[in-house]
Amino acid sequence: MTDQRNAASRQTETDFYYPLIIEQWNRRGVTNVEMARRLGKSVSLIGKVKSGRASFTAAMQIRVMEILEIDRQRAFLAAVWMKTPLAYFDDSFDKIYLVACRFVEASCPQLLSLAEQVKGDGLAPEAIERVLQSILMNMLNSVPPPRTGAN
Other CB atoms closer than 10 Å to residue 8's CB: what's the count? Predict the structure, then answer.
């Protein structure tokens, strides 16, 4: 029962990024000894974190992402918005990421204006986030699939 509670706790902390981080960690071939040295943590703790038996704090997660050179914006889109963390490594994800970046750049002034307008209206941040996620998902769903075969 304790293991289930611990797993549920870790899930709420880092579930979005965990599969992506572990995949990149393995792809890079970074040893637990090297990661422990770079983080200033014990090898034992790093082994437990990597295997899911210890909490992967947000601060440690950010530092590991830096060490593994994970693009945090790209990771956010894949893991949090699309809920498909390993899409980060998919070549076809490049187009989605590019379109999303362009959309955000073009929409940033409007989004900031929206945030200012609703700041005093008492809207919960969660409600605003749901609207913005819906906008982004609609935009991503409107991107045509990559063409395959010869033109």
Answer: 11
**Which token pair is 102?**
């362009």
- Burial class (CB within 10 angstroms; exposed 0-12, middle 13-18, buried 19+) of 1: exposed
Same domain, 73 and 103: no
Nearest to 131 by CA among 145, 147, 118: 118
Instruction: Please say whether the beta carbons of 77 and 90 come within 8 A.
Output: no
Residues 6+ apart with CB under 8 A from 4: none
Convert the pLDDT of each residue in 63-86 to its tens digit.
999 999 999 989 988 998 888 999
Q: Total domain count for the chain? A: 2
